[in-house]
Amino acid sequence: MADPRTPDPDLDAMAEQLRAAPRLAADRVAEIVLTLAEHRDRRVIAPLIDLIASRRVDELAVRAAGWLADPALHPALVQLRSTRIGDLGPAGYWEQVDRAIGRCRPDAAEQAEGIEVSLLAATQASLLESGAAAMEVGLDGEYPVTEVVLRLAERERRHAVWNFDETAPDDPWTLDRAFTLYRIANLASWG
Questions:
Q1: How is the chain split into domains, by residue range?
Q2: Of the residues 36, 65, 173, 187, which has the fewest C-beta atoms closer than 10 A?
Q3: Which residues lie below 8 Å from residue 150, measured CB to CB, with a gap of 6+?
Q4: Residue 183 class from Cβ within 10 Å (0-12 exposed, 13-18 middle, 19+ buried)?
Q5: Radius of gyration in angstroms for the set of CA atoms belonging to the chain, rounded to a whole number
Q6: Is 78 exposed, middle or buried, given 0-12, 13-18 or 19+ CB atoms closer than 10 A?
Q7: pLDDT tens readout for residues 148-172
Q8: What is the pTM of this model?
Q9: Residue 6, exposed/middle/buried by CB under 10 A (0-12, 13-18, 19+)?
């Protein structure tokens, strides 16, 4: 969550600066890409595709592609993955590439919706079985930023389904459903 004392970044200015990416320092490009991706600003998609296609994309920019989970990024990521030769290169980088490919698959959002609905139904059933019928459970957002929302009177708790771990976000093919339900049940305990 953003610090309330920190002003919101000027996304328009950042998107404009990104147009000059080849003339910017690599760390500035990374900062802009990450910020736009964090804010789910679609103006980063085309420059990110170009960056991935250039093969000068660092691990943080690949992670940003995964955060966006946009199918438009999938072909460039698959092409990048095809450039890997054996076990050369840092394993963490290629893990991020694989993770981004999974999150950007064209059918990921559809698969995710089915999983989200099943998580919601399982959570509701669990709450009824445990006698917590007064607790409301719902979904907020859509893949890849869907959250399970638990409400009891004025109190609210949220669980980011796909982005529980920002360094290793899940996709519909890697999500451990049982562990996700366990984390949601822990939220429902109101400890």
A1: 11-104, 108-188
A2: 173
A3: 123, 135, 136, 137, 156, 157, 158, 159, 184, 187, 188
A4: middle
A5: 19
A6: middle
A7: 999 988 889 999 999 888 778 899 9
A8: 0.82
A9: exposed
